[in-house]
């Protein structure tokens, strides 16, 4: 009898798993045959988010040279390295270009087909274009994966959930606003993958409140402007007349920081330095839940500071007042914030060269503007300053911080669920939009089609309308009949609309304090309420407590997702190599 493996999710994570299975099978798989079933209603390779059937106006969020699906020698893993082209090498693009998502979908399809071709002849792959509804079966026996529209389940020796972003039920506040909208004939668009949202109810010329200033907002902005026939000429936007007027705000009140627009040269910071495997092991070994703010954040801040100042001192020494060796020794010894601030003030004369994570994270804290128009001028100046800095290599300490962020994330995935603060901070600082998108924001603002509301945005519903305000502009508020929640749904088990995750949770799969599926950091096995790994069920991706910083890995950065994929693939192959007769005799 042939072995059966079911992978639910055929997007980048499922494709990456297939690549690692192909790479490790010659060493580890000694079975008589293996059938791999990929379950996903969307095409293999791109899956839902990166499918080719979406608007060509939507871009990737990374330079083409920073996107790869292939391992290199910087990845710490037991399996073999199988190098392959980055997106820009495969597509023949300029490495600094931002490819559209259709092209990325074609790249992912090619990676999928290559992985299939590299499987040993006794391993087959079949795609089932359906949704998986639930998984059943005993811990020590074959699993059953029930599919939408199919009477009989797939039988599986092992199941891997490689799910991407999933739809979620509204939280309490969103549900109240949605109910109010339905009662009063308003428009409320919930958190969603923007390419899947029906934007037709947002009428030309009408005011639309938008809550969220990250990447989902960027997609919304594009689809409601260029997507409706407008175009840019230089720094000017020429409207089609079909655009609504977007009033956008968020907790920070500013867009994510621009992607850095230059490459790395010279010495890299030796990372990790203050947050490495030893620190993670110590934190993981202590009893009780780790307090991120008290126990982890100080290590994160010191690591990011080290990456920043290493670059400043080694690449821009003329702007420092101490030799690097002296600064490094004193920096390492500093164990209180006041002492560290004093050291930096003495060693780095220009405040613009000092790393202030609090100011970066909350740039509008305490800022107050006399009028809405004054704030428009102020935020345009902020965006222009951010663009200039992030494209100026004389500020390459910022790129040092970026590398520090990648290093920190690679360590923190070993720790499990660290809460929403870290993931949000990383995305805001390291995973912002391409520079051209921010320039488009400026053009739309000047054209009057994009209006900034400010930080700590509040939304209320009364008198038949939605009303938005922010303390950034005291006394100002705007009313509208449409509200868009411009962010992806939270990937929590409890609020997910996906019946597969809900059923797993109901059966006893453990949930982290932040609502994510708990998994074994060693190989991705799903944990139960007492911490036991399920012998036949694995999970990887954003719905787990080992989520990684994005769908794709930057080459030569160690790739936490690659490490996870390899560990899971090897555990799966080792299990499936056990003779079936021997297993059934247990």
Q: Would you kindly provide a written description of the structure presented here, covering whatever features stand out?
A:
Pfam families: NAD_binding_9. Helices cover 36% and strands 15% of the residues. With 586 residues, it is an alpha/beta fold. The protein has 3 domains: 3-168 and 490-584, 3-Layer(bba) Sandwich (FAD/NAD(P)-binding domain); 172-256 and 433-468 and 479-485, 3-Layer(bba) Sandwich (FAD/NAD(P)-binding domain), CATH 3.50.50; 277-430, no CATH class. The strands form 5 sheets. The chain has a 6-stranded mixed β-sheet, with helices on one face. It has a 5-stranded parallel β-sheet with strand order 8-17-9-12-13. Helix 1 crosses helix 16 (560-577).
Within the CATH hierarchy, at the fold level, what is the topology of the largest domain? FAD/NAD(P)-binding domain
Q: Which strand order do you get reading across the main beta sheet?
A: 3-2-1-7-19-18
- Estimate the helix proportion, in percent: 25-40%
Query: Largest sheet, described in full?
Result: 6 strands, mixed
Strand content: 5-15%
Give the name of the CATH superfamily of the largest domain.
Answer: FAD/NAD(P)-binding domain
Low-confidence stretches: none
Task: Domain count, please report it.
Answer: 3
Helix/strand structural class: alpha/beta
Radius of gyration: 25 Å
Number of E-state strands: 19
- The N- to C-terminal Cα distance equals 17 Å
Which geometry do the CA atoms define?
Answer: globular
Secondary structure layout:
Blueprint: E1 3-8, H1 12-28, E2 34-39, H2 87-91, H3 101-117, E3 123-128, E4 132-136, E5 143-147, E6 154-156, E7 158-161, H4 172-184, E8 187-189, E9 207-211, H5 215-224, E10 231-233, E11 236-238, E12 245-249, H6 277-285, H7 292-315, H8 324-333, H9 337-347, H10 357-361, H11 372-390, H12 397-412, H13 420-430, H14 435-446, E13 450-454, E14 458-462, E15 465-469, E16 477-480, E17 482-485, H15 499-507, E18 525-527, E19 533-539, H16 560-577, H17 580-584
Parallel strand pairs: 1-2, 1-7, 2-3, 7-19, 8-17, 9-12, 9-17, 12-13
Antiparallel strand pairs: 4-5, 5-6, 10-11, 14-15, 15-16, 18-19
InterPro entries: FAD/NAD-bd_sf, HpyO/CreE_NAD-binding, L-asp_N-monooxygenase_NS-form
Region (Disordered): 510-559
Pfam family, one: NAD_binding_9
């Amino acid at each position: 009898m042939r072995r059966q493996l079911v992978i639910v999710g055929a997007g980048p994570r499922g494709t990456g798993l297939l690549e690692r299975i192909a790479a490790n099978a010659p060493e580890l798989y000694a079975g008589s045959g293996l059938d791999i079933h990929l379950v996903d209603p969307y095409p293999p390779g791109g899956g839902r988010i990166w499918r080719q059937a979406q608007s060509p106006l939507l871009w990737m969020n990374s330079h083409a040279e920073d996107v790869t699906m292939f391992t290199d020698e910087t990845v710490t893993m037991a399996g073999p390295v199988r190098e392959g082209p980055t997106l820009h090498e495969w597509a023949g693009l300029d490495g600094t270009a931002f490819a559209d998502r259709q092209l990325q979908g074609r790249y992912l399809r090619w990676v999928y087909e290559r992985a299939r071709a590299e499987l040993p002849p006794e391993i087959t792959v079949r795609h089932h274009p359906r949704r998986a509804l639930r998984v059943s079966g005993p811990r020590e026996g074959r699993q059953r994966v029930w599919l939408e529209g199919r009477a009989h389940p797939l039988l599986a020796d092992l199941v891997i959930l490689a799910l991407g972003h999933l739809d979620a039920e509204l939280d309490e506040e969103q549900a109240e606003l949605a109910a109010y909208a339905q009662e009063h004939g308003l428009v409320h668009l919930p958190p969603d993958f923007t390419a899947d949202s029906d934007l037709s109810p947002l009428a030309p010329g009408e005011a639309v409140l938008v809550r969220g200033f990250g990447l989902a907002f960027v997609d919304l902005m594009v689809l409601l402007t260029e997507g409706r026939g407008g175009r840019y000429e230089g720094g000017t936007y020429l409207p089609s007349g079909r655009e609504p007027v977007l009033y956008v705000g968020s907790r920070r009140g500013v867009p994510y920081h621009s992607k850095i627009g230059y490459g790395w040269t010279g010495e890299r910071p030796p990372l990790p330095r203050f947050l490495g495997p030893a620190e993670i092991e110590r934190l993981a070994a202590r009893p009780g839940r780790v307090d991120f703010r008290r126990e982890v954040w100080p290590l994160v801040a010191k690591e990011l500071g080290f990456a920043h100042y290493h670059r400043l001192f080694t690449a821009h020494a003329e702007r420092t007042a101490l030799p690097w060796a002296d600064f490094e020794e004193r920096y390492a010894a500093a164990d209180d914030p006041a002492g560290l601030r004093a050291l930096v003030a003495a060693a780095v004369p220009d405040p613009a060269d000092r790393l202030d994570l609090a100011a970066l994270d909350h740039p509008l804290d305490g800022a107050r503007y006399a009028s809405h128009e004054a704030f428009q001028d102020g935020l345009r100046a902020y965006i222009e300053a951010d663009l200039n800095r992030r494209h100026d290599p004389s500020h390459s300490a910022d790129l040092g911080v970026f590398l520090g962020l990648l290093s920190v994330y690679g360590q923190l995935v070993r720790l499990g669920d660290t809460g929403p603060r870290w993931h949000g901070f990383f995305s805001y600082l390291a995973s912002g939009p391409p520079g051209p998108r921010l320039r488009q924001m400026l053009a739309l603002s000047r054209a009057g089609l994009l209006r900034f509301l400010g930080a700590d945005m509040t939304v209320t519903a009364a008198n038949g309308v939605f009303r938005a305000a922010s303390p950034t502009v005291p006394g100002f508020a705007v009313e509208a009949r449409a509200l868009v929640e411009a962010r992806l749904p939270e990937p929590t088990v409890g609020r997910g609309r996906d019946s597969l995750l809900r059923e797993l949770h109901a059966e006893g799969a453990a949930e982290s304090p932040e609502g994510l599926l708990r998994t074994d950091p060693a190989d991705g096995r799903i944990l139960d309420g007492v911490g036991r790994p399920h012998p036949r069920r694995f999970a990887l991706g954003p719905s787990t407590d080992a989520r990684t910083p994005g769908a794709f890995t930057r080459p030569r950065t160690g790739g936490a997702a690659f490490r996870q994929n390899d560990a899971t693939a090897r555990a799966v192959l080792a299990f499936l190599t056990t003779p079936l007769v021997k297993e059934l005799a247990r």
